[in-house]
User: Which sequence fits this backbone?
């Protein structure tokens, strides 16, 4: 699928165009799941466990049932017998998971009883009347404590709290450490934060006994969602129809909602009424099971006096909470870029996924890459400090050079293309780095704490989840595909059909632009429709920054087939070979004899109505489907765990300036530049938008957001009063500087960019804060870096200085 | 207790709407579920995210923190009411499309309301004033950059129009 | 997060509001701006059986100057008070404090009296009221009484209001000296968040920059906002050198009993109390020095 077109030679691709999605949203005409109202619809509310670990002794529901307007009260005993446990990503069959607790509760906030009523308010009234008697049990909320042999077990039948552990050794790690002139070791901690979209997860399910079909509308972003819903409900796959034309109010990985949907589906089938389950914010934060990575890194680096990094040891312990879906795999995805953008020949990686009595974790933008980039970039700054070397010079020395691509890293993935030095240069130029340094130094002389942070990070894109096999050898999945159907109707209008939902990535704009480019027709005239899961072609959903590559590639492939069909019809009717046809804007003529021509409308009419003028063997109509596997995909891992994962590697270089009030310890980001290279951008505004958003999200993870737990196992930050999402007053003006090294693997040279910004921002901000603290001789390697944590470091450093 | 309903009469987007509501029904739920004006969104129900922002007697407020019964006799404008008199999107909405100031669209109605209120009272806002005006509207998609640009763009276009 | 069911009545006069409160007893609560009460009701932490709505009582929404006091009806919107030209000129600490209150949507609806009645120890208006020694007029079916702001707040989220009482008016003292300067500052994690700690100060200086009188206080670092009249009194007659202000701030911080929560330890709060009290006093002093008689106040 390599492209013959160079960037800059496109008509629509790469140009600033208004999105198709904009108009309906600015008019308030989005259609989100809460806008789906079906006649007779009932509402679900949940009774949540107050205990982090307890045996359920008894549940009394009479008072709840007696309330007017209450239709049903469901406990785990009944529900768990009637449905299958939800699938998880590792080989741990004893770690079962259902929407409702049965016999024991394993985290504070776990759903215990579901109430169905005529309104949400009545359901909540009834939920208050349910009495659950618990016998509290020992619990553990510290992940390192959970690893101890005598720790309380979250899933007794599993025998330990460890869901996954493996030690990968790629290259001569021990030799490199033995032979290197220097080494450092340190710990970096990524606090538990998550995507937390402004819209919570919601689902509406309706069972039709006449057709035996379960219709599902959901705020969903999840691969294999219909299949897993069907499986859990013990329905055949074609008995579930998921409607992908529901607008999703932000997801960034987290809206998996499987337990919600199985619960709503079960109730819809049981009661014969459409069922609505929309998380309120309390249910979402505590019991929505969408927390994010919660990770302790122990890092070691071996390096030479000239700054060459010889080897890394990375130990990562991640606390997934009390249940799991794919969360442990967020330790696996970073293997695809385990050494970042650097030339490091030997790497040891030891991930451990551990359970505690906390709210479960779900996929977060980057799927574990951002925490890993944070640890890697802190390592780089620490190596530089150890050597007394400039942080930029150190990076330049170790960055893979543009003439070294494709570059295979020790863990098995090949990086397709890049020019990291140029992107870094552009970012430094854009922020006027020497002037910024002078500014910082002047601020320091005036008694302020000021720091510049730099990060150079990769955004793997394309979504080859070969880490699934690494983490569960019984799961030999190598198919990571996507598809598109393009049709031209009798009137000559073009429609692209996709089989997935969107949550702001602009897929309608992406697909119409690509189809328009190939067919040379105005994208504004091209409609993008969404099939439902019964009629959709295979899709693996927008995850892993894959849609520009995969959906874009599929749309281009299908459009090419249409174009070839039109050319074939033309050649047949103009009595020449296809090579002699000049295709221009959908019209055709014979090369060298332009008087022999046909129009788009004529070709379309032949395809649809004039069978007698179709080339022999051509099917009637004008439609093409294109389904394809991710480039470089299909491989299985070697015994030592090497495998090609993501195909394409976008790159970002962040430069940020921070000042910290030396007396109040409050940080403020003053300047922010991000150099970004994701190959060819199909729509620059969309790419920039997601990058800005990713940076803002990264600012949250670095400075503000944390799902904090008390020693009692209670979530202390379960509302927006305490879980602090950055506003326009916390996010500074952001500047993006673009560069383009096309990917040789994709249709137009595009790489993915859905996770951009988030993958490098926390690393850069952490480095900036540490640069600001450096004159005090202290460091902070735990996120989020709140004013309180900063003050503790500052005051401790001052006390040390005084004594 | 089964509290009685309350008869209310509210002007919404220029039209009078009546109804009988339970006291505890919030203004946002009434607008969405009874009037089927689904453009105003629910994000947190405790007054932080701003997705539920509407104009109440011309001022931007959080409609999740008001009960519908409190709106009796008052004027409400939702995002649906921001379009021009002929139904076409106004300058501000057009600006949001021009600068790509939205992605998932969920915070957008609240942002438009806050921006509309700002420009009405301050036609030439500085960047700092823009950020303050939308400081009570959380967005997870955009990082606010293109939203600020949209409001600046709209202010300039409105000034241009006014000057002509 | 739907509130538990309640009965609702909209009062059209103060008398009616008082009568409704008395009639419906302990389960009845007033709703004004709702910015604090409605979230608590949504989380079912507050479950009034009756809500008495006072938003449309005309006698509770006004701003007037009477002699040496700026009078604000209890249901005056925070945004109106923040932007009132007379308030900005005569009691500048009010608009300085109000700029920190939540966001614009909050202040469009939130009321002056509502903030005082809610009595959050870290809230801006209660602190300003204590520092300015505002007088709060309270009404019930039993009649009227007046409380000094410092006596109104008795603990976190707790006031000296008896059952059936509502705040009717707040009287903010106007300082008429030629050189008055005030300042309000706080530390919150994000803009618009609840303050971790807040500080407010107002000073009046004579022609030689000596202090005629001063007042300052700290919020968020104790069970209620705390003003320091005795410490402030020691500043009278002195030149407000940086070192003197620093010492006063240190002593004030030492006298506080800060709490601890998810966002800040008691130790950090005490430290912030000192830093912010000092900054507020310094800024108030500098503004007073910059004043010339007859100028519009900033």
Assistant:
């Amino acid at each position: 699928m390599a492209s013959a077109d160079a960037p800059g030679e496109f008509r629509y691709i790469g140009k600033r165009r208004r999105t198709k999605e904009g108009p309906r949203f600015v008019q308030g005409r989005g259609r989100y799941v809460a806008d789906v109202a079906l006649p007779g619809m009932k509402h679900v509310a949940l009774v949540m466990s107050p205990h982090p670990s307890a045996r359920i002794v008894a549940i009394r529901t009479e008072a709840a049932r007696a309330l007017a307007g209450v239709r049903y009260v469901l406990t785990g005993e009944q529900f768990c017998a009637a449905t299958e446990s939800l699938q998880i990503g590792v080989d741990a069959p004893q770690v079962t998971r259902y929407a409702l607790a049965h016999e024991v509760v394993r985290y504070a906030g776990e759903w215990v009883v579901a109430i169905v009523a005529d309104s949400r308010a009545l359901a909540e009234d009834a939920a208050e009347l349910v009495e659950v008697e618990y016998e509290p049990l020992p619990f553990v909320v510290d992940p390192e404590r959970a690893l101890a042999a005598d720790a309380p077990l979250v899933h007794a039948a599993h025998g330990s709290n460890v869901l996954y552990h493996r030690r990968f050794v790629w290259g001569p790690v021990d030799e490199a450490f033995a032979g290197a002139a220097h080494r450092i070791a340190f710990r970096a901690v990524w606090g538990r934060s998550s995507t937390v979209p402004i819209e919570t997860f919601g689902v509406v399910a309706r069972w039709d006994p006449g057709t035996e079909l379960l219709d599902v509308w959901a705020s969903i972003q999840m691969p294999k969602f219909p299949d897993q819903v069907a499986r859990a409900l013990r329905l055949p796959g074609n008995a579930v129809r998921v409607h992908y034309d529901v607008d999703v109010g932000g997801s960034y990985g987290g809206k998996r909602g499987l337990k919600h949907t199985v619960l709503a589906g079960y109730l819809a089938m049981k009661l014969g009424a459409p069922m609505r389950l929309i998380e309120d914010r309390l249910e979402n934060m505590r019991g929505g099971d969408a927390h994010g990575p919660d990770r302790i890194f122990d890092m070691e680096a071996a390096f030479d006096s000239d700054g060459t990094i010889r080897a890394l040891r990375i130990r990562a312990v991640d606390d997934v909470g009390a249940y799991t879906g794919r969360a442990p795999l967020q330790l696996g995805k970073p293997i695809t870029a385990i050494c970042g953008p650097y030339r490091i020949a030997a790497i040891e990686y030891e991930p451990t996924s551990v359970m505690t009595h906390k709210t479960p974790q779900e996929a977060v933008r980057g799927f574990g890459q951002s925490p890993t980039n944070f640890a890697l970039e802190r390592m780089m700054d620490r190596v530089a400090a150890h050597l007394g070397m400039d942080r930029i010079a150190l990076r330049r020395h170790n960055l893979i050079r543009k003439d070294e691509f494709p570059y295979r890293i020790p863990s098995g993935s090949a990086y397709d293309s890049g020019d990291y030095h140029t992107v870094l240069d552009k970012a430094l130029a854009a922020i006027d780095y020497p002037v910024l340094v002078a500014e910082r130094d002047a601020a320091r002389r005036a008694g302020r704490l000021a720091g510049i942070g730099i990060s150079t990070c990769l955004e793997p894109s394309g979504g080859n989840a070969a880490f699934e096999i690494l983490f569960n050898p019984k799961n030999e999945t190598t198919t990571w595909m996507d598809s598109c159907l393009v049709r031209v109707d009798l009137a000559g209008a073009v429609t692209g059909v996709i089989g997935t939902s969107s949550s702001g990535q602009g897929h309608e704009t992406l697909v119409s632009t690509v189809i328009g480019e190939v067919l040379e027709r105005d994208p504004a005239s091209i409609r993008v429709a969404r099939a439902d899961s019964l009629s959709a072609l295979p899709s693996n959903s927008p995850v892993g920054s894959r849609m520009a590559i995969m959906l874009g590639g599929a749309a281009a492939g299908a459009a090419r087939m249409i174009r070839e069909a039109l050319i074939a019809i033309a050649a047949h009717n103009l009595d020449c070979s296809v090579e002699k046809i000049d295709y221009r804007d959908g019209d055709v003529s014979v090369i060298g004899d332009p008087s022999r021509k046909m129009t788009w409308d004529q070709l379309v009419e032949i395809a649809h109505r004039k069978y007698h003028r179709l080339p022999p063997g051509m099917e009637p109509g004008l439609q093409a489907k294109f389904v394809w596997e991710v480039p470089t995909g299909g491989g299985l891992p070697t015994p030592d765990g090497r495998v090609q994962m993501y195909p394409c590697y976008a790159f970002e270089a962040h430069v940020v300036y921070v000042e910290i009030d030396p007396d109040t310890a409050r940080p403020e980001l003053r300047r922010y530049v991000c150099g970004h290279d994701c190959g060819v951008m199909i729509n620059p505004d969309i790419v920039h938008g997601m990058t800005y958003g990713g940076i803002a999200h990264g600012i949250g993870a670095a400075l503000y957001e944390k799902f904090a737990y008390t020693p009692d196992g209670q979530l202390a930050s379960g509302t927006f009063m305490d879980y602090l999402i950055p506003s326009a007053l916390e996010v500074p003006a952001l500047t993006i500087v673009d560069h383009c090294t096309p990917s040789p693997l994709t249709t137009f040279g595009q790489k993915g960019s859905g996770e951009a910004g988030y993958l490098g921002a926390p690393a850069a901000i952490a480095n900036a804060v540490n640069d600001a603290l450096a004159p005090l001789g202290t460091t902070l390697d735990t996120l989020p870096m709140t004013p309180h944590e900063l003050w503790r470091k500052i005051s401790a450093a001052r006390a040390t200085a005084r004594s | 207790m089964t509290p009685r309903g309350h008869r209310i009469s509210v002007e919404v987007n220029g039209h009078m709407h009546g109804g009988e509501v339970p006291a505890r029904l919030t203004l946002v739920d009434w607008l969405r579920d009874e009037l089927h004006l689904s453009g105003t969104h629910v994000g947190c129900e405790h007054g932080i995210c701003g997705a539920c922002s509407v104009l109440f007697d011309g001022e931007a407020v959080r409609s999740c923190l008001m009960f519908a019964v409190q709106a009796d006799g008052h004027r409400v404008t939702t995002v649906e009411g921001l379009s021009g008199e002929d139904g076409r999107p106004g300058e501000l909405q057009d600006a949001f499309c021009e600068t790509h100031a939205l992605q998932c669209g969920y915070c957008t109605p609240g942002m438009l309301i806050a921006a509309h209120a700002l420009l009405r009272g301050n036609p030439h806002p500085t960047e700092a004033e823009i950020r303050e005006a939308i400081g009570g509207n959380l967005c997870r998609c955009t990082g606010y950059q293109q939203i600020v640009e949209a409001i600046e763009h709209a202010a300039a276009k409105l000034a241009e129009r006014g000057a002509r | 997060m739907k509130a538990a069911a309640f009965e609702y009545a909209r009062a059209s006069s103060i008398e009616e509001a008082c009568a409704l409160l008395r009639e419906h007893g302990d389960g009845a609560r007033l709703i004004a701006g709702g910015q604090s009460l409605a979230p608590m009701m949504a989380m079912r932490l507050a479950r009034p059986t009756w809500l008495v709505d006072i938003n449309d009582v005309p006698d509770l929404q006004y701003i007037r100057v009477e002699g040496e006091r700026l009078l604000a009806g209890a249901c005056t919107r925070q945004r109106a008070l923040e932007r009132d030209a007379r308030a900005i000129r005569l009691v500048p600490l009010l608009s300085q404090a109000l700029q920190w209150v939540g966001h614009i949507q909050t202040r469009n609806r939130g009321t002056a009296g509502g903030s005082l009645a809610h009595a959050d120890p870290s809230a801006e208006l209660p602190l300003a009221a204590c520092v300015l020694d505002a007088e709060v007029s309270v009404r019930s079916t039993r009649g009227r009484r007046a409380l000094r702001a410092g006596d109104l707040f008795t603990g976190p989220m707790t006031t000296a209001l008896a059952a059936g009482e509502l705040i009717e008016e707040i009287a903010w003292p106007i300082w008429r000296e030629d050189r008055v300067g005030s300042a309000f500052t706080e530390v919150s994690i994000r803009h618009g968040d609840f303050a971790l700690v807040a500080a407010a100060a107002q000073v009046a200086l004579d022609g030689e920059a000596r202090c005629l009188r001063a007042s300052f206080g700290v919020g968020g670092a104790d069970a209620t906002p705390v003003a320091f009249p005795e410490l402030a009194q020691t500043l009278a007659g002195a030149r407000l050198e940086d070192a003197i202000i620093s010492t006063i701030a240190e002593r004030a911080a030492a006298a506080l009993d800060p709490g601890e929560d998810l966002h800040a330890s008691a130790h950090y709060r005490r430290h912030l109390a000192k830093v912010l009290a000092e900054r507020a006093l310094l800024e108030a002093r500098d503004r007073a020095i910059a004043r010339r008689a007859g100028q519009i106040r900033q």
About this structure: Chain C touches chain B through 31 residues (CB under 8 Å). Chain C has three domains: 7-53, 58-173, 179-290.
